[in-house]
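During the first year of the project, the team set up a workflow for recording each protein of interest as an amino acid sequence followed immediately by a discrete structure-token representation. This format lets reviewers and collaborators read both layers of information side by side without switching files. As required by the reporting guidelines, we include two representative entries from the current panel. The first entry is reproduced here exactly as it appears in our internal archive.
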Amino acid sequence: MKHNILLVEPTIKPNGVALLKEHGCVTMAPDGEAQTLIRYINENKCEAICTRVEQITAEIFDACPTLKVVGQHGIGLDNIDIPAATAHKVRVLNVPDSSHITVAEHAMTFILACSRSLKINDDSVRDGTWATKDQRSTHDVMGKTLLIVGLGRIGRALAVRAKAFDMKVTAYDAYVSPESGAQIGVEMIPDLNEALAQADFISLHTPLTPQTRGMISTQQFQVMKPSAYLINMGRGPVVDEAALIHALQEGQIAGAGLDVLEQEPPQPDNPLLTMNNVMFTPHIGGNTIEASMRCSQILASTVLEALDGKDTYNWVNKF
């Protein structure tokens, strides 16, 4: 029996769509507004929905009794009300392993770009000033200390790459033992502020939870080296943005590489946009062509398996 599956425009990659259409009946919603999703799910008796950034709230679970599976195209699940899904016996799936290397590569790109003041140097060519090496500081990463906050798949992949550049790698993660870190040559430091004080580069790879929201704030910036760079590849609200702006304005840290922000896209008057020691990408850390294709393939296949009652490896709210 073919299952009814809802996709939302813009949707997952064509390879995933093709797989779902081969084995299911696919409907496309024109947008991700709650009332649109509720109407399309109920009118088409959809048993599954594949999401990207859409907010899947308790209201949707309450209103859609046919829904059995929510498949998230990516790792982060902060757009889905997991307790409400569990209460309604709706399986939530994500794709934790399609883009961890991709995100790690992006973090390494930021580390190298920050160390060489890439934005300032690029601007100096474009604006005709051709500023020389005596007018700014650039650094080797060899011998510098990288602190990885969150030593999951992404953090571990970044550690491997940083060690290839002869960096010293430390990590803070309450769920990873010192023995586990030592297996990949990473020193686990149990106190966040102590770890921050030692680091030349800090790379954030934590999910957004009540515990991690604002975990990098005024106190944390105060203990960082003035030569340190902050890389955020997790979620924007993990960093207190007002505190980050103050830290940069006061020279408490040297700069930042940000793939994520508290508000995306940012307001035009966000002070971060005027700082030449801050580099941005538009939340694309895990979004290469190869990673997106992998993610869509894995998501489509596991959504179909879940609809058939199979125990998929990426079922995050088992009940």
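The second entry, processed by the same pipeline in the following quarter, appears below.
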Amino acid sequence: MRITPNPEGVGARVEGVDLSQPLSGGDFRTILRALGERGVLCFPGQSLDAGQLSAFGSRFGELEHNVANSFHAPGRPEVMVLSNMKEDGKPVGLNDAGQGWHTDMSYSEEIALANVLHAKRVPVRDGKPLGDTQFRDMHAAYEGLPAEVRERLEGRTAIHDFNKFWEMMRTRPGSGRAPLTEEQRRRKPPVSQPIFRVHPVTGRRVLYCNPGYAVRIEGMEPAESDAMLEFLFKHQSREEYLYSHKWTPGDVLMWDNIATTHNAVADYGPDEPRYILRVQVMATLDYARLAA
């Protein structure tokens, strides 16, 4: 296995491993450590079916079954289809582009370790791939906070609400999303999360507060909370924390949902096909022990 760090400071390219085959214990540990240290891993030139992607992802923890949509690979409710394509006039997948910056599952008491996406078709225009997935490094964002802000927020928590993100997406042109049902709201109630979290692999602090789901800081007056959240969201958007991944068919992209935020760029049209398989790995294992 060869791991080549990206020059941006976030991410790495991992070659010399076939993800369609079961991982050895050593390869698993190497990938887990690299995920914690680099935040985003690209495994190019892979060819996995839905079952093989599920098997790879489940090596790192239990896989989420998304309750809010029905776009899954046949017989694989844990494997979501992300696509702008249609068959017989009907969507074949969830079009996730343009969702804005967020961290998946921060709205859940049981948070996610990682996303794993496998590109089958990538939109291209004039020879250039479209639909980048962008990332921001929350290890670096925490370390870059002014000392007085770190002291002020130490031990504090923020409320994260799935409905904030969902309602934002409903306002996008052509969304077609219905409001969450009462049953969906009951299954995704607002939760409290620490603003600073110790990463389970690196042991370092990360800024765990994203604009997609965080709605208020507990124990602060509304105006003070709003101002602090605005500061945190602006701070984490600094250019030095950014990495933008340009997709190639065959890429398997795995990213750390504890130490990054991400955004899918909506720069392609309905006639520029995109088809990606996705699993979400919940943080259900003792990663500090497994990475040791």
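For the second entry, the following points were noted during internal review. The chain has eight helices and 20 strands. The mean pLDDT is 94. Both points are flagged for discussion at the upcoming steering committee meeting.
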